[in-house]
Amino acid sequence: MPANKNAMTRYKILDELLSNWYHNYTTTKKIKIFNIINPMKRTFLIMTFFLCGLCCFGQTTITEEYFNKIDNAYQNAEWEKVLQYCDSIDYYKIDFPYALLKAEALAGLERYDEAINHLKSLENTDGIEPYYITNTLGNIYWLKDDLETAISYYETTIELRPSYARPYIYLGYIYQQLEKKDKAIEYFMGAIELFYANGLLDEVEEFTRIIISELDSTYIYAYLYLERAYHEKGNFRYAMSVCSDIDKLCEQYDVEVPILIENIFHTGENIFFLNDYESSSIIFLEYLNMLEYYRDPLYNSECEANVYLGLISEHFKDKKEAKKYFQKAKKIDEERADSLLKYIADMNEN
C-alpha cells in the first residue's frame, strides 16, 4: 500500500504517458468512497477515463449540465446513476472515456463479469486504443482478486504501449502486495523513468519514496532520481541531503564507481545553487581530478563542471579563469555548455 494514499491523484498527464491530455482535479473524496466500497484496494484503481471527457469537452456534443450530473454521480460513487447516464448517451459518437466509464461503474457495483464482457465488446472499436482496454481489464481482475490475470493484462498493456505509466505502477503495487520486492521495485522504476523523462517531478518524488521507505532503503537508483527531482524543483537543501545519503550508501556498499563520482558533481551543483561558491569550487575541482583517473561515457559531467567553475570565477571577478573554464566547456560540448548556462540563468530568475 502506498505511504500516501493520494499518490494516484496527482498525475498531470493522462495516457500517452498517463495521453498528453492535461487535467487538474482532486480525488480526496473519490479515495474515501472507494475505500468504503472495498478498503485497501480501490484507492489504487481510480480510473480517470471519465475525466478525459473533461479535457476533450469541446469535442463532444454532451451538454455541460448533463456532464455535471455524471460527474456528481461519479464523485459520490453512485454507480447505478453513472451506469444509467452511460447507457443513455451514445458514447461511441462522443468520446471513448464514457465507454470505459461504464466498465468502471459495473466494477463499482461488483458486477465484474459484466464489466469484463463490456470491455471485451469494445475491442476493435474505432477510437479506442487496445492498451486502454487491456489496462482496464487488469484493474477489473485486480478488484476480483485474480492477481495472475491482472498481471497478465498489465504486462500486455506495457507491450502495447511501453510509454504508458499506469500498468507499471499497478504492477508495482501488486508485487508489493505479494511481497515480491524486487519485482515491485522493477516496475515502480519503470514508471519513475517515464515520469522523470517527462518532467513529472512530483511523481518521481512520490514513487522513489515508496521504494526507499517501503521496499529497499538501500536501493541507490531510487535515491539518484529523488536527488534529481529535488534539484530540478529547486529544493537544493533536500537534494543535498539525498546526496549525503548516496555518499553513505557508497561507503557501506559496493557501489559502481561512476555513481560515486557523479554524486560528487551533483553535490557541488547543489552547493553552487545554495550560493556557497567557494565550497562548490573545491568540489568541482575534486570531481575533475577524479575524472582524470576514471571516465565513464554514461556518467560524465566534465563540460558542466567547467561551466560552473567559469561562473564561480566570474563571481570572484577572475575573468581570465572564467574565460579558461568556459572555453574548456565549449570545446567539450558547446551545445551542452550553452544549454546549462541558459538553465542556470532560468533558475536564478526563479
Describe the structure.
With 350 residues, the protein is mostly helical. It has a domain at 1-162: Serine Threonine Protein Phosphatase 5, Tetratricopeptide repeat (Alpha Horseshoe), CATH 1.25.40. The protein has helices at residues 28-37, 49-55, 64-75, 79-88, 91-94, 97-108, 112-121, 130-143, 147-160, 166-177, 181-197, 201-215, 220-232, 236-252, 257-273, 277-291, 302-315, 319-349; strands at residues 13-14, 21-22. Strand 1 and strand 2 (21-22) form a beta hairpin. Helix 8 packs antiparallel against helix 9. The longest helix is centred in the last third of the chain and has 31 residues, at 319-349. The protein is elongated and about 75 Å long. The two termini are 36 Å apart.
Question: Secondary-structure map with pairings?
Answer:
Elements: E1 13-14, E2 21-22, H1 28-37, H2 49-55, H3 64-75, H4 79-88, H5 91-94, H6 97-108, H7 112-121, H8 130-143, H9 147-160, H10 166-177, H11 181-197, H12 201-215, H13 220-232, H14 236-252, H15 257-273, H16 277-291, H17 302-315, H18 319-349
Antiparallel strand pairs: 1-2
